[in-house]
Amino acid sequence: MTATERRKEAAGRVRDAEDAVVRLRSGLAGVGVKLPSLRIDLASCTGDEPVPLVDLGRCSLETALRLSAALEEAAGHDS
Predict the structure, then answer these.
(1) What is the pTM of this model?
(2) What does the alpha-carbon distance between residue 47 and residue 10 come to, in Å, rounded to a whole number?
């Protein structure tokens, strides 16, 4: 694989991670949850062949409980 092909592949992985962040943000908003630190981990996007990670970040206890409730509801378990 050429350097140009590797760069294109890496750029595609970063775009996929950006798309995942957008989808997560939208999906979470749909159940009333906002993770204020949701983003791509920039350090994971460096180097010749980045492997982007999605950083869910930190949130308040209230947000964590809302997220837990939304997941439990989606799984069909009432708490």
Answers:
(1) 0.81
(2) 10
